[in-house]
Structure formats: structure tokens, C-alpha cells
Sequence to fold (480 residues):
Amino acid sequence: MRSSIQRRDFLKLAGLAAAGSRLGAQETQSFLSPSAAPDVARTDFKLEIGTVTVDLAPNRILSTTGYNGTSPGPLLRMKEGVPVTVNVTNNTDIPEYVHFHGLLIPSEVDGSEEEGTPEVPPHGSRSYKFTPTPAGTRWYHTHTMSMDDLHRGSYTGMFGFLIVEGANNPGTYDQEHYLALRDWEPYFSNQAMDNDDLDATGPQPERPAVLDTRQPGVEVQADVYSINDKALGSGEPIRVKQGDRVMFHFLNASAIENRHLYLPGHKFNVIALDGNPVPTPAAVDVLLLGPGERIDCWVEMNQPGVWIMGAPEDPVREGGLGIVIEYANQHRTPQWTAAPKSSWDYTIFGKPPTQPAPTETLDMIFEKIPRGAGIFNTFNVNGKPYPHDREFVLKQGTRYRLTFHNRTDDAHPLHLHRHQFEIAEIYGKPTSGIIKDTVVVPTYGRASVDFTADQPGLTLFHCHIQMHMDYGFKALLRYA
Fold:
């Protein structure tokens, strides 16, 4: 396990050890400007899976697996409704799957072994052909299981942004940036940091009367973080002018933890969640993104200075999860002030419900089994381990209300493949119009989402924390 001494050593490498030190600026950050991505949508793409190095800091270079020699991989820009081909070459010794997260595409190209997608064989290739929809900020990533191997699956650098262009213009802005939040060098620990308590305590309708006192199993933790391929203190800052409106596309590409983000003196004006426009755009101080979630928002640059945009939690930010925002003609040490107390609330971006609830309902009850698999926790859905053979059977064209009952002490980012859902109730509040593919259900919390069964074929549901998915937190939905 890593110690605090090692973290301090890393901060010295990144140029952050002394409180008054000037943050370094050694290399340009990936995806830091529109010029880093293609200007036009394409129909043919190549992804090559192989070993890559990630230069987090001048003296901290990681070796991992990625796409096309980088991590994040290339930004894939597609046009909604225009067929594309993604040709994948696998230069590793293990089978791979590329999942196109947030797209409404057939199961045979969705990139999930559970759904029956063919593998990309070791030292072989495979072509994914599909018609991308809907428009918005999507992403792609490996979907292999890791189990106890922290050098596989989403612990590696196999991820990247995927943009589906549509007819709608998101508005005018002066700059655009694609920023993925990442953790690196994972390890097993029974003392993992729990960030869920940063948000104000909400209702806990699923909290059991008697808590499970059995010794919990180990979880995965990290002490090293980055935004894209650079830790805070390395790479170029985002340079702005007073009055600029800057569009940010944020992605939590972590395999491990929900993440918060804060920019002192500024507000995030949220216009889309998981790539889908929200009914009620709203300004917030602090963002929360579960693994797999995306947030599109703009920031008005109205506080001249040099600021750190990063994680509110000191160990996470000091471990690298941040980037510098530098105003023109400002030359000073980057500033950080503590984030205000906040509570993430999806419903502020929604609207009052106007339609009756679907009459067809599905319930999923999640429970954690401490050390159900040796030193590892396992998870049951409705009292059963995976697979849930023909338990969740859908009738094509039917609208369903799916209710998540989280009877665990974690906040889980829950993802439904090949479909989109509308949040109907969360935090005890009804809402509508918020369309997502991943939602964080709070500790001992409950959430209901509505979706239409309009994508025939096997559909995978799972927690987007890699270890939880690997050890049973998933289910297959089937069509009758």
C-alpha cells in the first residue's frame, strides 16, 4: 500500500510540494483545445489497443494499456444518423471489448461480453459497424472484467471521448475543453477513502434497522490522479480572458470512485447530463460525477487571477486531480479556496412531472455481502447473484418504471446499456425530463427511472465501479 510519504514525493515531482511554489507547465494537455480534436465528423475510425506511457508529471511516467498510443484515446467525432465503422486492432495477449457508452446500438456491437458482443481476439482485429445516436457527449472504454487483476479493464488507460454531432447548437462560447477525471496506480485496501459524505445527508429510505457488522472486504483505492493525462502541477494551464465563456465537457473515467469538482469564485452552468440537454439549466458551485457520467457546462470567466480547478478533497486534489485556470496578464501562484458545503441534486435540472407513472414496474434491491468471495465483497440483486436468468424480461415498446433500492453503505453509479432513462424520483423528490444513462444512487437511497423497452436484445445493467461490477453488481435484461 502507498503511504503519505509516497504521496508527498509525488507532489514534489508534480511541482506542488511547497505551498508557495509555482505550478509547472511542461507539456500541452490532451484535448485542451478544439484543435486537439478533428473539426469534422468522420465515418471510419481506427483504434489500436496496446501499451502506452502516460507522462503524468516530469518524473512520473506510467505504463498502461491504451488506444492509439495515448490515454485518453483519440476523440471520436461522429454525425448522428450517419453509419460508421470502428476498426479495432488488439495488440495484447488477452481478449478485449470496446463499449460505446451512451449509444443506442445493437447488442452485437455494444461491446459487452454479457450481451454477446464478439471479442476482439488477442493479436487480432474486429470491426464495429453501427449508426450513432443520440447526439451528445458519449465515450468509449474497455469492458473486460478485472477481478483481482488491477492491470486490466477500466483500471487501464483504455478510454476516450466520443462526440455525436446533432442538429442542435449548444450555444456560443469562446473555448471548448474535453476533460476526463482519472485515478491511476490502483491498489487493494480496507481503508478506502469514502467521498460520499461530502454531500449533505439526504433521506436514507433503504437503511436497514440493523446494520451489517461483519468485517467488510477490501476495496480498490488510488493516491495518484489526473485530468486527462496530466496531474495538477504538470502540463499547460487553461488560458482565458476576462469575459470568456468556456464550455467544459467533463467525464469521470475513473474505475473506482465518484468525484467532485470545484473552481473557486466561479459557477458551473450545467446544460447537459450524460450528453442530453437538461430541461432546466442551472448554475452550481460543485459538480458530482459518478464513474461513467458526463456533464456539459459553461463557465463565465469573471474572476481574474490564477485558480486551481480540482477536487474539493485535499488528498485527491494534491494527488493530482486538478488543472490550472490562468487569466491573461495574471502571473501569480495558483489559488485554491475551500469549496462551500453543497449537496448534489439532479432534480434542480428537471421539471415537475406531467405524465402518469408507467404501469409496468421493475424493482432492483442491492445488497453487499461482506467478504462474499474471499477477501472481496460480493453483491446481490434481489437476493441473488449474477446471472439473473429471465428475471428481468421486457415487452418491446412498453414503458417501465425501474426502482433502485440501495441497501448498501456506498453511493453507486448505475449504468443501463443501450437505453436511456428519465429520472422520475430521487432524494425523495419527484422530477422529470432528466435523460441519462448513468445515475448515482446515494447511500441507503432509492431512485426510480423510467425507460422505454425499444432496443431489442440483451441489455446489461451494472454498477460502473469496476470491482463492484466484477463481483456481482450486474444483471441482464432480456426481451420477451
About this structure: Helices lie at 4-14, 107-110, 314-318, 466-470. The two ends are 48 Å apart (CA to CA). The chain has three domains: 7-23+30-169, 176-345, 360-479.
